[in-house]
Write a structure and sequence with these properties.
2 helices; 287 residues; 20 strands; Immunoglobulin-like; mainly beta; five-stranded antiparallel β-sheet
Length: 287
């Protein structure tokens, strides 16, 4: 009995549509267990000066939902955690994971049941600028036991069902530039404050599209943002073809803003996202 859970962190890169799946994956006898697949991806970052934004992950855990009568302390009891991976650090360049591209973290069997939190231990973080300048970053003391990422809605692992979880690692919020971002000589360093969100794919949808001046002139590095209650929920930068993709978005109605320096920003209200479906939203910007 298997259940495939794909969990990813979104970053800046090309376009790849993740198919959310609840398919039967064949008969097996794993004693009521399901297969977990974790993937990595990210949200946008000022890439013009940065060559690599590296994170190394050496431990991943998932927490089962505690009984309703449990206290807050009991709900975070170590006995509720299952270690999905612990070992040699896995290094990822988050700038390779833009616009829907993901990197698989792991795939394994876990017990059938409900899970409400993933704990991710980041062992190392590093920024490398285009000129080769290297910044080794300090991991925040509050995350030494692992970064807690809530799953809402909860992940329900069922027998013979494939599930996916997307972990969206927001580079722009996680790596805070110290100094003048327009001049590499004036960048003094970076603060690392990891910001990650998690979304079960079967409850989420995708927005993708293109940004252009006209039908033949794409706009690269345009900033596309999606907002809930006037708060930025996720964002992406367009690639050289003007394309972008936002994955792992909870079903609902959003506002979108597209902007690029030198152009007039465009806002679109009432963009609808449906679970397991793709919404296309294109933008035309004028100077």
């Amino acid at each position: 009995m298997k259940n495939l859970i794909k969990s990813g962190l979104m970053v800046l890169a090309g376009i790849m549509i993740l198919a959310t799946s609840c398919e039967k994956i064949g008969n097996s006898d794993n004693g009521g267990k399901g297969t977990v697949v974790l993937k990595l991806t990210d949200a946008p970052f000022p890439v013009s000066l940065v060559d690599q934004a590296l994170v190394t992950i050496d431990k991943i855990e998932i927490r089962a939902v505690a009984p309703e009568t449990a206290t807050e302390m009991e709900a975070d009891n170590l006995s509720l955690y299952t270690v999905l991976y612990e070992g040699e650090g896995k290094e990822f360049n988050l700038l390779d994971l833009q616009n829907g591209v993901t990197a698989e973290l792991l795939s394994l069997d876990i017990e059938v049941g409900s899970y409400d939190l993933i704990r991710l231990h980041v062992a190392d973080a590093e920024i490398i600028l285009n000129d080769g300048t290297n910044f080794d970053l300090k991991i925040p003391g509050g995350t030494t036991s692992g970064l807690k990422i809530k799953l809402s809605p909860e992940l329900v692992v069922e027998s013979d069902v494939e599930s996916e979880v997307v972990l969206d690692f927001d580079v722009s919020k996680s790596f805070i530039v110290q100094g003048n971002t327009k001049n590499p000589d004036q960048i003094k360093g970076f603060l690392f404050k990891p910001v990650v969100r998690a979304m079960v794919q079967k409850y989420s949808g995708i927005i993708e599209g293109k940004v252009s001046e006209n039908e033949t002139t794409p706009i690269a590095e345009a900033h596309v943002q999606i907002l809930r209650a006037d708060t930025v929920y996720s964002s992406a930068l367009t690639d050289e073809t003007g394309a972008y993709a936002l994955i792992g978005l909870p079903a609902g109605t959003y506002k979108m803003v597209c902007e690029k320096e030198g152009y007039t920003a465009v806002t679109v209200d009432q963009v609808i996202v449906k679970a397991r479906e793709k919404t296309v939203q294109n933008f035309t910007l004028v100077k």
